[in-house]
Write a structure and sequence with these properties.
By secondary structure, the chain is mainly alpha-helical. The protein contains 21 helices and two strands. About 0% of the residues have low confidence.
């Protein structure tokens, strides 16, 4: 009989922790004499009681090792259950959002997508604003731990290629995950603190710096202002670019760097490919802006750099309306969002390493066509890529494209135009944030979409954050017969 108790224990514990974090925005609202502190108190009480009851009822099986089926179900359930409780302050509190809107905002936060249904954001209380930041910060560190501890073991999307001696999880997923979580948490917290100090040094208000540091390091993109980073000065934009780039690098490399090992970071071919991609994209967009948009010098470079890095890393900040930059820029930025950062980071989308493995496979096939009798094997960082890794990566690409098509069609059936349907599907499936067009583009949000479209996008954010295959596997009856 399939045992759900180990899953229930972990989820109950995480719901309790989420409830405890609601006390921080509650305190802020009390200090500001905002009556909506009651909504955070109520939400925290509900979350803590439900979480503790769930954990206590399942505690007798807490130390059991998880099977592969239980691990798949756990990784999917966490990102489905936590947004439900994370939505309570939006539903009960100041925004007084409807159920679908509250769940959309919470799912966008936990998956670090950054799509929002809120407008006039700067008018909300500090409690609501920091709660949006907390959701993204928790979602960011959560996905790193899942990517480094669970996904390689689950052989999802080629992530098993990133197993290393220092982070091997064979046989004991949860104990090893705890060890990984401890190291990553310290690194993640330090980067967030340094980012906040940098923002303060650039002239940002302390509260804005705290919230934006959380949404930067998590590559989430929630801002305290409708106009996002257009609110701030150029120096702040450059600091944001720097920390978005850091957040898109493998966090295991930071742990190694803190241990005095710099070579793994410098020699990582994925990192080098990532920065080369940034350089090429920024150069192309800068030249285009100077040619077609009549921006020159530093401003053209800064706008191209900021928005390219923001979309490439899946953060979703904007510093201007790139819908006015012309067709080439719009197309390039759309493609940029479908690339993503490095594996084992907080960034989203397809990710650099999958393109590297794809190109390695294509090169080998071309060589085999030229020399049919030759023996050629695709390699990554000097190692032969196994068939199961290649099959996993190819499956991911197929599932991603199929999902993108199906979600786009589903959105069009809800009455959305072509641009909104395709860009909305891409923005949520790749967890980028803003889409294209007047409605969900850089100067819009998702509030005007109908409820059916929002539920479709909620599902898109959910499966996109968990690498697609981790979710779809639990719907395959053969998987449960293993």
């Amino acid at each position: 009989m399939f045992d759900l108790r180990p899953i229930g224990y972990v989820i109950g514990f995480l719901v309790t922790v989420l409830g405890l974090t609601m006390l921080l925005p509650m305190i802020l609202d009390i200090v500001d004499d905002n009556r909506h502190w009651v909504s955070f108190a109520t939400s925290a009480l509900i979350s803590i009681i439900v979480g503790m009851m769930m954990a206590a009822s399942c505690a007798n099986s807490a130390r059991r090792e998880l099977s592969i089926q239980q691990t798949f179900l756990l990784t999917s359930s966490v990102w489905l259950v936590l947004p439900i409780f994370g939505a309570l302050p939006f539903f009960l509190g100041e925004p007084e959002l409807r159920v679908v809107d509250a769940f959309f905002e919470a799912m966008s936060g936990m998956t670090t997508t950054g799509a929002t249904v809120l407008y006039d954001i700067e008018e909300f209380s500090r409690g609501i604003l920091i709660w949006r930041g907390i959701l993204q910060w928790l979602g960011g560190i959560g996905i790193i731990i899942v990517a480094l501890a669970f996904l390689p073991e689950l052989r999802v999307g080629g992530m098993q290629i990133f197993k290393s001696e220092g982070f091997d999880t064979l046989g004991k997923i949860l104990p090893r995950a705890g060890e990984i979580a401890q190291r990553i948490s310290v690194t993640y917290l330090l980067l967030t603190l340094i980012c906040a100090l940098a923002y303060i040094g650039s002239g940002m208000e302390v509260f804005d710096a705290v919230v934006h540091s959380m949404t930067t390091i998590s590559t989430g993109g929630f801002s305290n202002y409708d106009i996002s980073f257009a609110k701030f000065n150029p120096l702040t934009e450059y600091f944001a670019v720097f920390f978005m780039l850091l957040a898109a690098l493998p966090f295991v490399r930071f742990v190694q760097l803190m241990s005095g090992k710099a070579n793994p970071l410098v020699q990582d071919s994925q990192v080098r490919a990532f920065f080369l991609t940034v350089l090429v994209l920024v150069l192309c967009l800068t030249l285009w802006k100077m040619y077609a948009v009549d921006l020159v010098g530093e401003e053209a470079f800064r706008k191209a750099l900021f928005n390219t890095v923001s979309l490439l890393t899946g953060t979703g900040y904007v510093s201007g309306n790139y819908m006015e930059w012309g067709g080439f820029a719009i197309t390039l930025l759309f493609i940029t969002g479908l690339i993503g950062g490095c594996a084992g980071s907080t960034s989203c989308s397809i990710k650099i390493f999958r393109y590297q493995l794809l190109f390695a496979s294509v090169r080998v096939q071309l060589r085999r066509m030229r020399s049919p009798n030759g023996v050629f094997m695709p390699q990554y960082e000097g190692r032969t890529i196994s068939d199961d890794v290649l099959n996993s990566v190819m499956s991911f690409f197929v599932f991603f494209l199929l999902s993108l098509g199906v979600i786009s069609v589903a959105l069009s059936l809800t009455g959305q135009d072509f641009l909104t349907s395709v860009s909305g599907a891409a923005a949520t499936l790749a967890n980028i944030g803003p889409g294209l067009g007047d409605q969900i583009g850089p100067e819009g949000n998702f509030s005007r979409l109908n409820d059916t479209a929002k539920w479709v996008l909620i599902f898109s954010m959910f499966i996109g954050r968990l690498e697609l295959l981790a979710v779809f596997a639990i719907f395959n009856y053969r998987f449960w017969r293993l």
